[in-house]
């Protein structure tokens, strides 16, 4: 193809369906000046100026002291475990996205699944102690749907047994508890900035670090273990965020409050309208002072006329693509189901929730009329 040949863009038919989410994107024209800067400087990656600026801006926005950017949340989880030299067994939840447990397997660690709390669907602190063995070194809870875990109870157990705590906070961007950012809890917290998250950089993630020394160590680990040209301190990986993603993140941050406000209004509308539908339970918040409305999970109870999967299909027939996050449970996937802790009898609450849950569409540009339409379909099927 000659240099002047027109670019052929793959044709994409407009898709009228409503998906569980749609990325929030700042206006394209606002992104051009950032791209021009990158084109001028030719700094594409390796802790460039946008990378450094985004780290600072996110610390300020989130109310944390130190943060290391990553290519994605999964590599951030893998690296967080390495940074703390976690080995042996780690207690975690089966009710999450597979990346949570996969990060353990990537480090040769055995996941030990513990059941979740019926109200929050987060790891149930009351069930953690019984799962601790001499091999246990850490706990990896998830702030599922952005609803905070019982961080005080988890800290008390961890202190008692000398365990580390790494929060998978992939869903918890911007969430605050009564004492400030939920991301300040645990030894480390990991965020995801994937396209489907409340704050996205296309792909991306971060580790929230308690001090500058830990951040420096993590910065080495995400850059092959390099300290300088001739010094490599660890078998690190390459999981650095590129300048283009970091620049986009800076722009996204300027619009994130507006996006969160739109999510909040949609969440309120769903709750108001679904309150009248028998057999549909909206998952309550977990007492957060500031929520992020990342997901809108409902639980299809026995009183509802259809089972969850029938409702899921009915919505699809109407072009509403809800998702069953988190079904199947992680513990039901082939690489985990042989573990003793994966036995469904050990996980009754998670097993029941995975059978009932449906995450309804929620994203800033979802029109209130669309929410009404979704609720009408659910109410008419009841
Ligand atoms: N820990 C937890 C607790 C997580 O939930 C996740 C990721 C991670 C760790 C790992 O973080 P990352 O390594 O991903 O940073 C999605 C996401 O891929 C995944 O990031 C997310 N959790 C998980 C809960 O959901 P899928 O397979 O459901 O995504 P997909 O492609 O079906 O997208 C859902 C809908 O979003 C689509 O139907 C349409 C819309 N969409 C999606 C993409 C990617 C768009 O409109 N544009 C897009 O570019 O996993």
From TrEMBL:
This is DegT/DnrJ/EryC1/StrS family aminotransferase. Keywords: Aminotransferase, Pyridoxal phosphate, Transferase. InterPro entries: DegT/StrS_aminotransferase, PyrdxlP-dep_Trfase, PyrdxlP-dep_Trfase_major. Belongs to the DegT/DnrJ/EryC1 family. GO terms for biological process: polysaccharide biosynthetic process. It comes from the Bacteria. CDD domains: AHBA_syn. The active site is at 197 (proton acceptor). GO terms for molecular function: pyridoxal phosphate binding; transaminase activity. SUPFAM superfamilies: PLP-dependent transferases (SSF53383). The modification N6-(pyridoxal phosphate)lysine is found at residue 197. It holds the Pfam family DegT_DnrJ_EryC1. The keyword Ion transport does not apply.
């Amino acid at each position: 193809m000659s240099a002047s040949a027109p670019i052929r863009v793959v044709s994409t038919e407009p898709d009228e369906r409503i998906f569980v989410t749609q990325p929030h994107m700042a206006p394209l024209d606002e992104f051009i000046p950032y791209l021009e800067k990158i084109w001028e400087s030719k700094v594409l990656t390796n802790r460039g100026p946008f990378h450094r600026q985004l780290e600072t801006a996110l610390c300020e926005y989130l109310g944390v002291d130190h943060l290391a950017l990553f290519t994605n949340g999964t590599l951030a989880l893998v690296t967080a475990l390495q940074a703390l030299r976690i080995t042996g067994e780690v207690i975690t939840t089966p009710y999450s996205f597979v990346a949570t447990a996969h990060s353990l397997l990537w480090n040769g660690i055995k996941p030990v699944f513990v059941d979740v709390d019926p109200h929050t669907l987060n790891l149930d602190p009351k069930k953690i102690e019984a799962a601790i063995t001499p091999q246990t070194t850490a706990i990896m809870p998830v702030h599922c749907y952005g609803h905070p875990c019982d961080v005080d109870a988890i800290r008390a157990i961890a202190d008692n047994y000398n365990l580390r705590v790494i929060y998978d906070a992939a869903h918890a961007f911007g969430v605050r508890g009564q004492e400030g950012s939920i991301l300040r809890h645990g030894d480390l917290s990991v965020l995801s900035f994937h396209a489907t998250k409340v704050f996205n950089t296309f792909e991306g993630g971060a580790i929230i670090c308690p001090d500058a020394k830990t951040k420096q160590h993590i910065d080495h680990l995400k850059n092959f273990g390099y300290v300088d040209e001739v010094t490599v301190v660890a078998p690190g990986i390459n999981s650095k965020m590129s300048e283009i993603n970091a620049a986009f993140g800076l722009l996204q941050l300027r619009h994130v409050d507006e996006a969160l406000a739109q999510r909040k209004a949609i969440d309120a509308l769903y709750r108001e309208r679904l309150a009248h539908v028998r057999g549909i339970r909206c998952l309550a918040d977990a007492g957060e002072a500031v929520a992020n409305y990342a997901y809108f999970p409902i639980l299809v109870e026995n009183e509802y006329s259809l089972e969850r999967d029938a409702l899921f299909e009915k919505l699809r027939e109407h072009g509403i693509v809800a998702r069953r996050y988190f079904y199947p449970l992680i513990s039901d996937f082939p690489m985990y189901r042989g573990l003793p802790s994966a036995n469904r009898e050990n996980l009754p609450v998670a097993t029941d929730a995975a059978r009932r849950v449906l995450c309804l569409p929620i994203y800033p540009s979802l029109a209130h009329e669309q929410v009404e339409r979704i609720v009408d379909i659910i109410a008419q099927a009841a």
